Every structure is written in C-alpha cells, then in structure tokens.
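Please check this protein record:
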Amino acid sequence: MRRHPVRKFVGLTVLYAAIILGIFVLQFKTESIISRNLGGMRLTLAQSETENNIMELRNQLQVSFKGIILSFDDKNPVLSLGKDGKEKNLKLASWDEKGELAADFFFNDGSVMTVSVSDRTPKAQFSVSAMLSDDTTALIVPYKTASNYLVEDTSEKSTVLSLKDDYTIFSAPLLQDGKVWLQKQSPVASLLAYNPVQSFSFEKVLSLPGADRSSYDTAVRALRSSVQSRVAQKLSGSEADRVTESEMIAYVAEMAAGGRFEEAINSAPETFVRGNSRTYLSAPYFARLVDMNRTLTTQTERYSSMVDGAITSGNASIFTIEGIEDYLIRIKRTSRGRSLLQAIASKQNFTPSLAQAASIIHVYEVLRRNDEAYAALLEPVIPSCLDAIRNACSLNDGVLDLTENGFPVTTQLSVQAGQALFIYGSLFADEGALSAGCLLVSQALSMPQNVEVRILSELYPLLVKNSYYPHMQLLGYYGTAPVWAWTCAQNVTYEIGEEDIVSIHIDFPQGLTQYLMLLGVPDFHAQIEIQQIPFRTDPRFETYNSSGYVYRSEEKALFLKSKHKSRNELVRLWCDPAVNFIKP
C-alpha cells in the first residue's frame, strides 16, 4: 500500500462519498420538510417515515410573519397550563390548512392553535388564537423576533418592532420569557401596524356629539327603560321561566324606583322564586334567607381564597370579580385587604388588560367613598389603568372605537371602560376622560334594544344608582370583624346604646316588606324587639303576614323579615357586652 498512495487516496474518497451519499439518500427518504406560504405568513413543518412506511408529523413548527416567529420543537415545546397550575409538554398531532390565509394546529391534549393573516396586502394583520381543552387554562407558545428587526419597546403584553420606517406591534395576553401566553379568557395575540408618533388623547372627543353628560344620562335612561319593558315582556310571555336572576333583580329595582315594588315582586314566576337558580343576590326581594345564606357563605369563602391567591401572585384579575369591592371593604381592618392592594400597587411596569383596568378604577371609586386612605393604596396603578384604556381607543369618523389585541371589544366591556373613564374624570376633574367616558357609554347604548337584556341587566348596577337594588351596607366593626347587611333598604343603621342594647333602624317604604341578612351580629339570646314588640324565633317566619326572624349564633347571622308599619322600623337586640365596636 505504501507503493500506491494515490490509489489509496482515491479509494477512500470514493468510500466516504458513498457513505455520505447513502446517509443523505436515507434521510431524504425518511424525512421531509413541509413549507407553505399563506399570504405573507410562512409555515414550516417536518415529517418522518415510520417503520410502517407512514409519514408522521414531527413535533416541530415554525410560523413567521414579518418580525415575529413562532417556533417550537421537542427541546422547546408548546406547554399547557392546567387548572392545577402545572405545566405540561404538548406534542403536535396534526394540522390543517383553512383556505389560503389560515391554518389550524392540533395538539395531543385537544387544544387547537390557529394562525391567520387578514389579507395579502402589505398592511395585512397577523393573529394567533387558541381553543383550549377543558382542563387547560393557557397555551404557552415559544416565540422570537427576526434578527433583522429592531425591538423598539417591550412590556409583558406587547412588543414594538421596526424594520427601517415600518413599525409593528405584537400584542398578547402575556409575553414572558420568550413565550406567548394564550389564556382561556383572552386567547388571542396579534401583530398590527403601529404608528409611534400618532397617539390617542381623550381631549380629541371633547367637541363630538355624545361626549357630554346629557348624552350619558340619556343612555342610562334608555337602559333603565329597556330593562323594565323587556323583562316585563319576558315575564308575561312564554319565556317567563327563562328569566335570569340579574334580569329579575334589575327589573324589581327599576319598578321599585317608580313606586311599583309589589307589582314587580308579584310578577316573579313561582319557578324562579322557588327554583334552584337563585342566590343570595335576590334574597332581599324573594326571601328564603336561610337557604340563600348558603350561597353567600360559599361566595365569601371564594372571595377569601382568591384574595389569598392574589396577594401571592399579584394577579389583578381579582378586581374583575363581581362584588369583590364589597368584600375588600369588609376586610379593610385586617392586614389581608391592605396586602392585596399593596401587592397590585407595587407591580412594576403594570400593564393591565382592559377589563382589569376598568374594574380597578371602579373598585378604587367604591373604596374611596368608604375610606380614602384605604383606597389610596391603589392609586399608584390608576395611571396605568387609564393608559390601558387610552391605548385601546381610536377615533374613526367621529366614532370612538375600543379594541384589544386588534379586535373590537364587547358592548359590555365598552360600557365598563366608558364608566371607568366617567368615574376617573369625575374624581380627578379630567374633562377629556369624562367626555370619552360619556361617549363610549352613549355609543354602546344608543340602541339598547339591540343589546341582550341579560347584558343590560348586568350593567344596570354599574350605571344606575338605585338603593332598591340589593346591596351590601357596612354597619360597623367589632375589632376587625365587620357587621354588615345585605339589603334593598334605603338605609340601615346600627348603634349600641346603654346596657349594650343594639338599635337597628331600617328605612323602607311604609306598607312594603323586605328581607335582610345581617351578618356579624353578636348573640342576643333571643332577646329581641321588633316594632317595640318582643318576638320569638320561628323557622317559618317568612310565611307569616308580619315581621319575624331567625338567628344562627354559629354564623352570627340574623335573618330578618321587615314588614314596615312605618317607614323607619326599629329592631332592638340585647346583645352580649362589647367594648371594641367601631362605627363605619
């Protein structure tokens, strides 16, 4: 061999070439790349041949559009977040083109991710959305930015990119650690054109029709009228058994404001009054106080658990929960209430969703009416909430549009955001915010007949100040423990006099009957006077044509039927001595 080095070199070269070519041919035979151009969006997948000669998708995908690249594989997979808070690796099971501009990707847990572009023009919008499986609360998709794009600005909800003079903004429910979070309640991310120079200001709407207090008041009156007439129509027809609790409550409250309380009460279907769809919310009208208290107890426990979770996580979504403002007032003398407000207020670069921003401003206003110092704990994030609403606004041909992640928001969220601006403008004398709030509300409710009556009834307590609507009234604190009423009375007061006798005054129209839940009341050992007459407890007290009560000492709960012989009824209790009572 030493005599023939050239022959050896040639032989080895041929051998290595054959091996390399064989590997290449084998790989080409068993693996292939799938590429698609859908508008300006490019998809790249991979598949390989199984032992049964069947081509099977690999867990590998890249979706690119302008400066955003969604990309995952086995080393950096798509994750699902379960209801238990645990993350799970997902695998791509199949995919399907949806026409020429969209595609669906199916994962092994049943979740589906859809990518699409709006059109084929240079101004096309890109979106990625998710339909999550029942056990999944979020789909977490890896992403990155293209190397030729500059990142101009970034936050936990958006990234602004630029290529020369072309700016885009990629927005999502959450962008964190190179991942796009598509959440159950907000499952869409989008890439839109962005103009860094032009920004919306509330002052732009000052002179527009509908941006005044008169238009706002007209819209609220229209809502009230529509709720009353449409629920009445529902109750008198074949849909009476389908009336919801929110519809029935708003209807009774509005009828009561017009002096027709008994008529409204008597119109309620028996299936509703005695049915299982009711909760404590309607108890002041339709009794069953002891039964309804179970739903109140469950809701209170839910609030407590959510507050504990939000203190740890700093999740601002807790403010979107109905009634959370009342619970925060009840716990304000404990450290938990303040800890929650401080946990939210201390968040860095806080960028709330539109619903969170509107709800935080609403909660702030309710807390401020009760205790300005307590509400002040939330003030650091109020500017961020205002910015979140402002950034969602755009003015188009005299119409104030509200969008989130590139999509128009619902009528309900538009009204909530408008009411938040109305509140902010009223509190801080901001004429621009006030006008924008009036315009959003008047636009959304310009034709209330086109809005579901269920939605109108849910918006009713947000927009209408009506004390006949069931509400929480704080009566005081024994130390840190609140005493409070769930009532539809015009006013309830709680005073401790000589010999520790508690006097409860209830303001409600003479001749009418209402039902109260009084929580946090110390044991009075059955020593009670109603209308200056000693009363005995009776589990059937709600069925008699008179006032009556039941008391649960273990819950410190007094359930009271108040049949008013006068507008201001007096209930007196001979409670256990208390030295730590604090008025609200």
